[in-house]
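Priority: low. Protein: Protein translocase subunit SecY. Input follows.
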Amino acid sequence: MKLIENLKNVWQIEELRDRILMTFSLLLVYRFGAQITLPGIDSTQLVGLASNFKDGIGGILNAFTGGAFAKASVFALGIMPYISASIVVQLMGIAIPYLQKLQKEGESGRRKINQITRWLTIGICLIQAPSYMLSLGSLGVPESAFMMQDQQTLFLVISTIILVTGCVFAMWLGEKITDKGIGNGISLLIMVGIIATLPQAFIQEIGSRVDGVGGWFLIIVEVVIWLLVIAACIMLVMGVRKIPVQYARRSATGGYEKNVFGSRQYIPLKLNASGVMPIIFAQAIMFVPSAIGQMDASWAKSIGTAYGDIFGFWYNLTFALLIIVFTYFYTAITVPTNKMADDLKRNGGFIPGIRPGTETSEYLDRIMSQITLPGSLFLAAVAIFPAIISLMGVTQSWALFYGGTSLLIMVGVAIDTMQQINSYLLNRHYDGLIKTGKNRKAVA
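Result:
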């Protein structure tokens, strides 16, 4: 009954209802586009392509695109070129003064950075699209599947244009969801693609257990472990370190009364302030060794062999290290301790025992470094857990949902979206989704 009442409260807020409907509509458009095969390719002859992207790195890439990669869809590139462009722009922001200046200009600077990211996305697509088309033959697509064999150059150009347009359109959908819908649009597009592959992976696991070793007992054990991992991910995402803050009580004239203090408050510093972005960034980088492995050189083949198995030692060690590095990096650029200290000082607030200003900024920076270390280690441990659970004989497609990119993105995006809905309810004098759902009395 509480759930039904909560949903009624959500539906009663017109703005929130419109945003949710907008989000679902745009996600539906994205999922519909992922099923449309590129013109000039016979969709009935793509069985070999689908088998190549069933497990391993190909399975992760296919999951990120919601199965579009294995279907030679118009959305085959998905949203990953945009993610790659975002990584490059943020890394360049450390060394290029112009980008550093834009980062300090507020909203106008953010718009210019977004525009640079969009153009860089198109540039990356112009490289990835023809590479994808030229590799289809080696990935299991027979020559008879291509209907324009006598006009290969024209077919390559047309397909490249369609793939680039599909990626740009997916990027536009993500931005529209962020602006007009609920949640982070780019993350939601990735999450929807991942969820689309979950039922099939679970059915395959049931089939392997029922017909093989373990039966239904091991299936129940696996589900229990999966729920425990989800609980651990929720704790990682929701964990905070509360920093006590004291505010001087304002007098009637607008000044501060001496020796009289107001209520005590807290600054919540998140254990995982960077959210799901470090693992998305790290996963994007981990596609590079696989691409290098396609080269003919012996050293490239060695790299491809070492990093081709996503459940292998070297892959997971590098993956974990990248996650730790990106967690520190993304936390440093998204948690402005200097601005937090300045805002506290401007509003008459201070941390007990810490001088306002520079000393407060250094204190907050030190605390963030201390809590980011266990947070990054925990994040890395969850990310490589699929490799550990696979030792129990779990199928690779189902093991990917025991942590790693898939589970962390799903949990992180779901919590972020739920928090946004919760804020709408609280602003309209309703209890949040985690409350009883009863109407609150409006404050006069």
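Strands lie at 240-250, 256-270, 349-350. The chain has two domains: 14-196, 214-402.
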